[in-house]
Prior knowledge:
alpha+beta, 4-stranded antiparallel β-sheet, 11 strands, elongated
Amino acid sequence: xxxxxxxxxxxxxxxxxxxxxxxxxxxxxxxxxxxxxxxxxxxxxxxxxxxxxxxxxxxxxxxxxxxxxxxxxxxxxxxxxxxxxxxxxxxxxxxxxxxxxxxxxxxxxxxxxxxxxxxxxxxxxxxxxxxxxxxxxxxxxxxxxxxxxxxxxxxxxxxxxxxxxxxxxxxxxxxxxxxxxxxxxxxxxxxxxxxxxxxxxxxxxxxxxxxxxxxxxxxxxxxxxxxxxx
Length: 230
């Protein structure tokens, strides 16, 4: 649906649009849609050309790839963040598919509008570059995590990060355990073994609920890096 006037302040607060003039933002939003989707709604398909830039305003989105009928979660996108911006800017096929993990609110800007605005609005162009840089740093963090930590340490750091995002030491897994295992580069069996190890460091797993009883002990084991937290 089209944006309402009451939607504009929340859109203005998104990093991608903060430097734009009121008129430039109004022109961009006049060609955009703010949509609500239920959980597990398909948004894009790997291999298709991008018709919109998608920006997560509320909720969470699973980015995944498929091979021989098997799915692997590549990333989980939380607000405020776009996906998959590089494909839109280059007008090239999606390298991943996307679906909502939870009920979500998504801002959708036509791809050609994004490219046209990038060419003529320097403030928006700076926002695009900043968003691409943020995504590049996120990929670098994932690569470092994969190369330099054991699977159990990766799970421990992910749990700490999710607790911080939730603002609570108890939270519900946003995806199935087998999906989380693939996201962290683990098999379901190694996930189960790692959870058993983390019980010794203050983690309880009951169904989809994760509880951290000893945050300091878990942090001592995980050794999160301050420079990887941006």
